[in-house]
Amino acid sequence: MARSVVFAALWSVAFAQKCPIQFDGRVPQAATLDSFDGNESPYNPGYVLGANLKWSSALQFPSVNTSLFDASGTKAVEVTINDKSIFTPSADNVQKGFRRAELLPVSVTGTDASTTGQKTVHFSVMKDSARPLNGSHEYQLFFLESNDYSTNQVTLKYGTIIGGAKKDADTLTVTGNVNTNPVATLYSTKFTPGVWHNFGIVLNFSSGTTQVYYSTNNNPLASVTRALRNSVSGQGQYHFGLLKKPIGGGSDIAHNGFQPKNINEGVIFGGIFQEDSSKSGCVSLKP
Ligand SMILES: *[C@@H]1O[C@H](CO)[C@@H](O)[C@H](O)[C@H]1NC(C)=O
Ligand SMILES: *[C@@H]1O[C@H](CO)[C@@H](O)[C@H](O)[C@H]1NC(C)=O
Ligand SMILES: *[C@@H]1O[C@H](CO)[C@@H](O)[C@H](O)[C@H]1NC(C)=O
């Protein structure tokens, strides 16, 4: 009892915010890794993780500069994967083709207001030089997965995108709906080490458009695309972390394909939140 009261206090931080908040996944300085295992953090304690793993073993608090939207007393959190990061939603569904660890804001039910009106998802990502990603593989660092699991309406990918055009694998790519053929690249940029890459992704669920805002380090976000036509219907859940796809695997990459052994990989996140941009397109460009 006393424990949960303490944790709840750790997770309540007041932010001066221009636009109304839909969900807030920013991590207060005082938050502990253990608090991600219970119901105190704003993230789902059970998903999406390897079977029998706990968030306290899959997350780290890295020592890095404060990201753009962590300026009011919140800190970075790193999501890591290893050979045990095999998501097993049921005994007969062992996703051994993937390595996965993705934080899901617990207020997002799949049919809530985070996927209606116009909303802007904010997050920053940075490489961890001690836990490099493998550019031979495709990763998803962020995605909205529809409520019927049939598609990802918007993603942030890294590495060699399966079926994608040949390009430098060391690239962050924001894509449109992955069920579109070909999948649209909305924006891409080099994943420079030691640099925060800040994204604001504006989703208009009424008009079916996606607009990308981007900056590095402490620079305010700037629009890097127009509001581009993109099918964002189907509501669903926002994922922040690592979904590493296999090499090969044919038509069922969740269960087949090659994954090298003894991996130790991670990506650092900062400033995860979503704001309501319905009123006069309110998008926070800086804190
Ligand atoms: C942190 O920010 C300072 C000031 O911008 C910069 O000089 C330094 O290189 C940064 N450190 C890291 C680890 O990025
Ligand atoms: C990167 O992935 C490829 C393909 O799975 C694998 O052959 C290679 O050993 C990996 N490289 C490292 C440094 O782990
Ligand atoms: C979202 O799209 C709808 C339908 O086109 C439009 O009426 C609305 O103004 C857009 N929202 C914003 C904030 O631009």
From TrEMBL:
Assigned keywords, A-Z: Signal
Keyword Signal part of the UniProt annotation: yes
Domain Glycoside hydrolase 131 catalytic N-terminal per the UniProt entry, residue ranges: 21-279
Signal peptide: 1-16
Superkingdom of source: Eukaryota
Protein's UniProt name: Glycoside hydrolase 131 catalytic N-terminal domain-containing protein
